[in-house]
Amino acid sequence: MAGAASALFLLDIKGRVLVWRDYRGDVSAAQAERFFTKLIEKEGDPQSQDPVVYDNGVTYMFVQHSNVYLMTATRQNCNAASILFFLHRVVDVFKHYFEELEEESLRDNFVVVYELLDEIMDFGYPQYTEAKILSEFIKTDAYRMEVTQRPPMAVTNAVSWRSEGINYKKNEVFLDVVESVNILVNSNGQIIRSDVVGALKMRTYLSGMPECKLGLNDRVLLEAQGRVTKGKAIDLEDIKFHQCVRLARFENDRTISFIPPDGSFDLMTYRLSTQVKPLIWVEAQVEKHSRSRVEIMVKARSQYKERSTATNVEIAVPVPTDASSPNIRASMGSAAYAPENDALMWKIRSFPGGKEYMLRAEFTLPSITDEEATPERKAPIRVKFEIPYFTVSGIQVRYLKIIEKSGYQALPWVRYITMAGEYELRLI
Amino acid sequence: MSGHDSKYFSTTKKGEIPELKEELNSQHRDKRKDAVKKVIAAMTVGKDVSSLFTDVVNCMQTENLELKKLVYLYLINYAKSQPDLAILAVNTFVKDSQDPNPLIRALAVRTMGCIRVDKITEYLCDPLQRCLKDDDPYVRKTAAVCVAKLYDINAELVEDRGFLESLKDLISDNNPMVVANAVAALAEIQEHSSRPIFEITSHTLSKLLTALNECTEWGQVFILDALSRCKAADAREAENIVERITPRLQHANCAVVLSAVKMILLQMELISSTDVVRNLCKKMAPPLVTLLSAEPEIQYVALRNINLIVQKRPTILAHEIKVFFCKYNDPIYVKMEKLEIMIKLASDRNIDQVLLEFKEYATEVDVDFVRRAVRAIGRCAIKLDRAAERCISVLLELIKIKVNYVVQEAIIKPLVCTLKALLMIYYDLPRYESIIATLCESLDTLDEPEAKASMIWIIGEYAERIDNADELLESFLESFPEEPPQVQLQLLTATVKLFLKKPTEGPQQMIQVVLNNATVETDNPDLRDRAYIYWRLLSTDPEAAKDVVLAEKPVISDDSNQLDPSLLDELLANIATLSSVYHKPPDAFVTRAKTASQRTEDDDYPDGNEKGYSANVGDGGASPSTSSSSVPYTAARQPSPAQVMPAPASPVPDLLGDLIGLDNNAIVPADQPAMPSGPPLPILLPASTGQGLQISAQLARQDGQIFYSLMFENNSQITLDGFMIQFNKNSFGLAAAGPLQVPPLAPGAAARTLLPMVLFQNMSPGPPSSLLQVAVKNNQQPVWYFNDKILLHVFFSEDGRMERTSFLEVRSLFHIALVYCGTELSKPYIMKDHTAERSSSMSIWSVMFVTWRSLPDSNEVLKEFPGIMVGSAETTMDRLAASNVFFIAKRKHANQDVLYFSAKIPRGIPLLIELTTVIGNPGLKCATKTPNPELAPLFFEAIETLLKI
């Protein structure tokens, strides 16, 4: 059951090795490079290639980030979920160190890269991926001191994500409740899928080792405590916590208690699969007069309460690739043809609740078409928006208690926002 | 925080190495550091800087941690190529392992473990022992993993030095990270050991479950994966375990979630209370769904696993089908997996919605995906009887939309194939009669051979119901010679069917044309043979022809790619691992081959192993595997335990002749040089018994000739010469055909030789036995006796292939074959186009069956090998062919694969072999038919040796 990676490769966009670390001595770089180069050549588009590939006794798993591939090779039956997730974590670590993970930054910092590869994995087993703590004892040149480094306590502590002795003059916590609405509407106008994925994003600037307790309007908790719910209590369906949250405690009495990492992190994510009314409904009628022009009429309607307002609304309506000479009129906001996306982009800075706006557009089509042409991808209408001070789920932070032995007072700031996630409406 | 290391990559072209050498030996610390960086940069871009070994190692003694790390890195890379110089580093390593700074102590042990050089390994033990008991948990956690490294290099050393015990102690360590790494190390060691090393008692179990709450996310994965090997004693314990695992479902790390799911599913097997099980299923659903919001690569792994989970527990996600609907931007590999799961979750309740989705996908652009989507509709039709009509009508709508040619072709093919499959299941034409009419209209768009063949099958099968069946077939016949073989075969059969159903003039003419085409104007033996058989049948006995051609068809059912239950259970025990991604048991792709020795220097010859001279004996090296899908195997022949006849208590002078009862002519002096190299042979006379003389030997076959391959090693203090050999009477009359050629052996020397052998010299009476008694003598020592085993496969001759032509002459036998074909062979034929490639060459089939059946049943002997697993049919064929066991045919029976082979042993005794197995699962049934069934036990031994991995 056990299994470990044999080596970790960082490859450039053409599949050539930038840096690699051999953990077990049973694969060779040249072989892996040859294989991978062949693979991406063959596929053309590596994004369509399965992320797990078997070749000649070796399994390759990879993820891509900008112009770098991160790939592991293994000869064993190792935990694929763990390795792939680890690769994504490695991306985060590099991003923390070099701001951007790309070919150049890896080359520019290869010494640190080697050091990190030595620390994050040992004999092919993932070891430690807390970027913040790693940077306490593996530093880039600019920050390197001559003092000999010691492993921070945190590396092996039960609280592996926070170092001791942090000090702030002003102790503050910022808590953003961000809900993304995912929706998929089919061409008949039926909602075939909708869910809300929420995240509690925290930024902590707290001294010492603060003990935090978060109270939400969680129905299970409130009912267990026998409280009469004033206002709305909500059912959170699938909650995922940052590793700092004591899971066993939550399982017992639904208390969310934790010692937070320093800086920003996602405290928890949750999902609600209850059917939600689409916040912004878009209908489009496309009339294609073949070989001359195409007429598009778009109606956008806001379906939330009037006191809320969506900002930065962006509606992308797909148009044929060979369309030209746009003629667009919008009753609100600005609209422009974006040929690079084969779409008509309609932007509305502020969209109050209960309103409906229209847009008409006309494009010219070429009079000759290629009979053999492959058909175009049928892209859906896609919508982006943000609605501040509003959550679909009605989640509320009832309290955030922060207790530290020095007894300081910390200020929690809470913000709510709802935004569009994968918000797709298929065209007829 | 950006660095400027890239400057180290730029080099002055001329004299780079000498320049670096100079800088490495510079007085200035900074200059040395820069130089090491340049060396590492050169190493990174693949330049060979191993010649700087001594100079770099000289920089190792430094206070500068960064520099030290770089030197260590260099050592990991090049110590292997400079093993003698690596010893230079040992002192510093040992010193560093006692450094006051834990970071350096850990670094030293970690690095030493990565250097796979014996000299370093020897010195690793003491520091490792210390570090396992270090005060600092960071050092202990590193040391724990280091034990696994050492075990990988030298398992004996780990056991002898008691590291396993120290490692087990670490499970009770107070630091969770140390516990997690110890668990990972123990689990890995257990994996490679047959002895129980890491047993999880209820005490360790509760310890580990406690550590689970405190260790890092990766540590949690190690512990959960290790725990999934242990099963609870009873339902109550299982419930307790599950209770402590369930909080992990809330973890943000997907790997933790999946491993927890694995653990819960395994324990659920023991829980009998339906309420508890239902409750657990309810708990697992949301986390599984949430995995689909992860990164696409993780989604892929999750989907492959969910595919398994829904096969075992369909209720978990029965109501969640919508989450598997494809999004516009999903990568294609995610879409494909989602499609599979949608089919699995499709039910009468949700089929309308699912069909709507499939229809949407069918109008996408990616042809592969479109094809799969259309096929998915077909599979739903087969799976859900009541929805079949709706599925078919969706397919028809798709045809009517006539989106474009590319897609059109993509739809027609699965449509026709689906329809054919449906007809084969339900035999209910009226339901689909209208469709056939529509299909016939789009005949011109049928380009794909598979679709064409399916359509022709439909026409032939329902010739009596389709009014213009003859016209339709005739239109195909015009292009008969140009059609691919698959279509030709189907046309031939369909025409015969048409003729048998409507024996009128038109079809009669058609049949003439077809038979003529298929017998005279074709080179394809399959087609020709099938045509001949039909011809003969039709001309001799049309009624018999009807029985054969229009025979009842076998029932097929939708498999929806369902896995065999036992395989499914094995895969579920491997959730989250590669095994669950591939849907293959780990043995099928994990290579046990130790390739530790091949590192950078032999990159270009990744599988380079010495060319053994005896190709027939399974040699120990990994054979280079060419195809990327075939699983490489190591024909590792375990040296059989040496069986040694007790040496006579007192020296017996010149006993050879007396004992064996033969004239001494066969004893031949040895004085010619022997061959020095070759694969290892089993030791038959260990040095301890042979007063320092060690003899290893084995029968081998080379170029059609049998040899006795011998290896003599002289570990005694005196030179040995005058070697002679003698064989006792044996079942096959094996005897030496020439002199034994072994040079005088100085102390410490070894020699190898190939002794040619002959058969049928002095045969022992009685039932065949594999015993081969050998006596060897030399001028200095008493006579040594030892036993060897005769492996039957060395007798398999190169002419053992059952030649089709030689059997074709036996025309009269054809009738038997045909009767057999009528019942048995119609199956592979009809199914052929539907179930992909099936090597069903009629002639070979018939030959096989004729020969098989011409031998009486009493000559058939059967034996099961529960321990043997066939990873892939091709490897097995290759492996057997290497030993002159020749592949004849293959067929599928239910989920089993049946392979037929032939072999021949001297005196022309044929062996027919039938292997039945489920590919990828352990368990192999071997049946053999031969005129000499008493050979069977020997034969089975040989097969076992050949197939054991």
TrEMBL record, chain A:
One of its GO terms (biological process) is intracellular protein transport. Gene3D superfamilies: 3.30.450.60, Mu homology domain, subdomain B (2.60.40.1170). The keyword Transport applies. Its main location: membrane. This is MHD domain-containing protein. Residues 170-426 form the MHD domain. The keyword Repressor does not apply. It comes from Gossypium davidsonii. PANTHER family: AP COMPLEX SUBUNIT MU. Belongs to the adaptor complexes medium subunit family. It is found in: Cytoplasmic vesicle, Clathrin-coated vesicle membrane. One of its GO terms (cellular component) is clathrin adaptor complex. InterPro entries: Adaptor_comp_med_subunit (IPR050431), AP2_Mu_C_sf (IPR036168), AP_mu_sigma_su (IPR022775), Clathrin_mu (IPR001392), Clathrin_mu_CS (IPR018240), Longin-like_dom_sf (IPR011012), MHD (IPR028565).
TrEMBL record, chain B:
GO terms for cellular component: clathrin adaptor complex; clathrin-coated vesicle membrane; Golgi apparatus. GO terms for biological process: intracellular protein transport; vesicle-mediated transport. Pfam families: Adaptin_N, Alpha_adaptinC2, B2-adapt-app_C. Residues 673-787 form the Clathrin adaptor alpha/beta/gamma-adaptin appendage Ig-like subdomain domain. Residues 796-948 form the Beta-adaptin appendage C-terminal subdomain domain. The keyword Protein biosynthesis does not apply. SMART domains: Alpha_adaptinC2, B2-adapt-app_C. PANTHER family: ADAPTOR COMPLEX SUBUNIT BETA FAMILY MEMBER. This is Beta-adaptin-like protein. It comes from Gossypium davidsonii (Davidson's cotton).
